[in-house]
Amino acid sequence: MTKEFRLTGRHVLAIAVSAFGVIIAVNVVLAWQAVSTFPGLEVRNSYVASQTFDAERDAQEALGWQVTPEYGEGQLSLIIRDASGLPAPVAELSAVVGRTTHVRDDRTPDFAYRGGIYTAPMTLDPGAWLIHLQAKAADGTPFRQRLDLYIRG
Question: The pTM is what?
Answer without folding.
Answer: 0.69
